[in-house]
Design goal:
Two copies of one chain form a homodimer. Chain A is built from 15 helices and two strands. The first copy, chain A, has 288 residues and is mostly helical. In chain A, strand 1 and strand 2 form a beta hairpin.
């Protein structure tokens, strides 16, 4: 069963509670940051792992998925600010700071970070013993020293290892999705960590490749930005062919790391579908 | 017993875990935002209420106090950004965005918000039944629709009630301090809410008055900024004399709302001392 409608409904519920009252323009900026969504790959991954692990506390799994997506959206809003990427567009519409101004973009990002923790606490209230590890997983993925904020901050350091940058800026939240999916279902998260790590890296490599090949329709944002902004990029480090081979290798290793579980076959099919979506064959043929 | 050394030690521990590894400049910006501190009035209030309520889970009370102070520091870092107050100084030193640049100021604020939830989850792990209400109290105080981010966002709305603005931007975190102090000690938080509300408003009114009277040494930042930025201010709305009378009245009502408890007398003395610190008699005599 496709978990996307379930995810969208839970995101709508979370935003409704935060936006029903209070400053209308802040509410507008928060909604603009979350809807319409992208592929929602992180929350879908979280729910898919929870289902593969039995999904015995569906509200906790949904809350973790929602928290992860809200944190992802918050990071995009702040990444797009003039002092970082100064992006005009995101997901095919005006970036939040273009639509609502810089001040509300800063505040919408802040409020979405807070809302993520609120949604998790509320959804996992019925399973409080799982709340503590879920919170630890989530904070590790987004804060310092190894989460999204740290990854973004590496852009301000003089020398950076590409792998450190990608692992913190992108990989950490994918790991939170697989580990958190297992934790929300009361399963041992350890076997799911490598899968999140490899998928996160594959996702980032695919993004770097698409940035060069310029599939604007798929990106929903202008291409060629990495080189323009001097950002670390796999396409730049490995060359385009090397980056595509690296992507294929990461997907192979991700498939090989799916833990033995009832839903393994379904999970495998999902990953193969996702890999083709991330880097369509017709796109990579352009590189040949 | 003065809780300040206990608070400083806990803040140091929280920062140490976030800053030991990872990007050094982000770690520097985070430390710069938290040390040296101001009066630490919110965490002191939280610990004082917890002690008045028996303080039977001191680690939970400390964690709530630390979380509140980290969120306060994060809000100051983002408030000082060029798109908001464009402040040069804070707590007598360069504002974070002046010392580390705008990008690291945005990220340090984000990472401090995340660290607040991490510290709370870790400190309250031994009392997980208290973690759920503590998280709800904390998120309500800082997010949308009624917390700090919402209060700051009211500056972007065409018409604002001064009381709404102050309650969200300042009052909410004072309420979290009193309510959270009680919750961390397993006590009923309801009787402590009015106290936090009144103290928060008194604190904001005192800040508005000092902004006019120009006690730069105490503010640790330039004065006259409210009028310059067209921000809602009690001194502007009520006149200087009216604002001072309002402050005195709020402190009287705060004192009257101290719940019956073993530590009531001690708590009363603490509040009277704090009121004099917030608005010294020698300063208000200047207004006569």
């Amino acid at each position: 069963m496709d978990p996307l409608p379930r995810i969208e409904r839970c995101l709508q519920d979370a935003l409704a509670s935060a936006c029903a009252e209070g400053p209308p323009r802040l509410a507008g900026a928060m909604r603009h940051a979350v809807f319409p969504g992208g592929a929602r790959i992180r929350p879908r991954l979280c729910i898919a792992v929870a289902m593969a692990c039995g999904d015995d506390a569906p509200r906790a799994a949904e809350a973790m998925a929602v928290a992860i997506e809200l944190l992802h959206c918050a990071s995009l809003v702040h990444d797009d600010l003039p002092c970082f990427d100064n992006a005009d567009e995101r997901r095919g519409q005006a970036a939040v700071h273009r639509a609502y101004g810089e001040r509300l973009a800063v505040l919408a990002g802040d409020a979405l970070i807070v809302l993520a923790f609120e949604a998790l606490a509320r959804g996992a209230a019925a399973a409080p013993a799982r709340l503590v590890p879920l919170l630890a997983t989530l904070t590790r993925a987004v804060g310092a020293p190894h989460g999204i904020a740290a990854g973004q901050a590496l852009e301000c350091e003089p020398r950076v290892l590409l792998s450190d940058y990608q692992r913190a800026k992108t990989g950490a939240l994918f790991v939170a999705a697989t580990v958190g999916g297992a934790e929300s279902a009361g399963a041992d998260p350890a076997p799911w960590r490598a899968l999140g790590d490899r998928l996160g890296e594959a996702y980032q490599v695919a993004d770097d490749i698409r940035d060069v090949l310029g599939d604007r329709a798929m990106l929903g944002k202008p291409s060629g930005r990495d080189a323009e902004l001097g950002r670390p990029s796999a396409a730049e480090a490995l060359g385009l062919d090397g980056a595509i081979r690296h992507f294929d290798d990461l997907i192979e290793r991700a498939l090989a790391s799916i833990p033995t579980c009832r839903g393994a076959e379904q999970f495998r099919a999902l990953l193969e579908h996702e890999a083709e979506r991330l880097l369509p064959a017709e796109l990579t043929s352009l590189a040949a």
